[in-house]
Amino acid sequence: MVEKEKTSVNYLSAYLSDHKPSKHWAYGVLYPRSARIVGLEGEDAIKSPQATFSYERYDTPALAQLRERYDLDGVVSGAGSQFEEFVLLNEWVYNKIPGGEPEPYVPWDSLSILEDIERGKKFFCVHYALVFIQCALALGYQGRMVQIWEEEKGLSGHSVAEVWSDELNKWIAFDPSGNFHYEKNGVPLGTLEIHKVWLSGDFEGLKEVPKMPPDGRGLSHAGKPYSELFKDGGPKHTGMYFHLRIIMRNDWFSRSWGEVSDPQGLNPEVPPYLHSRDTLHWTDDRTPLLANHQNTSVEREFNWPINFVRLWFDMKRPLRLIDVHMTSYMPNHRDFMVRLNGAEWQKKPEHFEWELKDGDNKIEVKPVNHWGREGTTTEVVLHFDKEEAEGERRSYSGIR
Prior knowledge:
The chain is α+β, with helices and mostly antiparallel strands.
């Protein structure tokens, strides 16, 4: 095994396993009295806006109703991976919803929207994204709404969905109103990555997958082709990703924004998502601050990670005995699954005792949510040296 950034305190050292370590992990120094692995990037995650994002609770009745009524498990049953499930769901939403102007505007409730379709009602981009996100939530995944618009368009633009991929350890953007996503050199992109592609002008290897339909169905001003709405440049439509703004909640079943009369004009009756401060806007040297909004230029704040576990360790007496502490960064967390030294996976409480053997000791941990979805596995190796430990025990006789 290749040792990575090994840190040593005489008898005890630690390093990340070379086998697919979580990207969310680095670590600090281990001390005899309180041996600790600090997730430095995990520390950033604690301070990030994920703490202010309002996630829909797993036991919200509408989620179970949505999953059962529209057989969402059947919708994604042909998928061979998590990502393929997202692609199938995106296609289903696109085919399910007819594009147009909803009159009157409707609450952010997929059950109501899907029922209204049967009454002949039409919807535009934000509703496609909303249904995609709430269906993803019903299947046990996490999604968020991102508003995008061109440099000169004001606040009137387009809405897309992002879903968290445990396979890729990042947020991926889907546009259900066009049934496509962006890939660069075969790798699916998130909204911030698309934004950077647009600014750089490096469109080599960039593709819309599958190719966007020509009628631009489902956009803010439905019925007009994309060519009339947005500028070209490189592959079409990436200029729409100049401004990015995340709506910092997905609990719309629990806290609906209600009905309004005019979804496009900026007046007190429009849906708050168009001018709410409950959003996070991206800014950089080319993208100006958005007044009266939260702004960030810190990538980890905009693309905060989820579905991982942060670990730390406290030394005990005898020195080979340690307390393991776990903190989950998985919304709707249910269980911690732990594997010690390659044994079977076991459910463990957030704090438990672990007796180290001589040499390397590997711990693998992953969170599980209330739908049984597993998050990213974090692997850490502790190296225990018995002879050095005896010397430390004599030197630190006050250790309890």
